[in-house]
Input
Amino acid sequence: MEIERKYLITRENLPADLDAYPHRQIEQAYLCTEPVVRIRRQDTEYYLTYKSKGLMVREEYNLPLTEKAYMHLREKADGVLITKTRYLIPSSLGLTIELDIFHGRHEGLFLAEVEFPNEDAAGAFTPPDWFGEDVTFSSRYHNSTLSTATV
Output
């Protein structure tokens, strides 16, 4: 089960010292958007992911792929390939903020996601001052939607 909140971030509010945090290069594409079936390259690891419907709470299953399988499936993907750099920023609550800086078609889009152990924790979360609009309950900012639309 994935329980997360998602926020828009403006360029002006990005943390100044991003390179001080661990980060990953991510490339992902969608084989299907209803239900969501995604393939992802994260640095040198490869995954196939299924996500159920939902906004803040969704089922999520990840299966490992080989590079060869990933490349084969990538050719079958619908929409555009999403590329982004994900920074892992610790929060004062012991949670991790995943800050995505998008490249390519969605250059200039910055989203922060925070995953929670339960719905109560997600509902009680007070975002840091540098977070912008809460877009948790908008499917417009799901990566599966971004693969087929421009924002």
In short: The beta strands are 2-8, 23-33, 36-42, 45-51, 57-58, 60-65, 78-90, 96-102, 110-115. The first strand starts at residue 2 and ends at 8. The first helix runs from residue 67 to 74. DSSP finds three helices and nine strands in the chain.
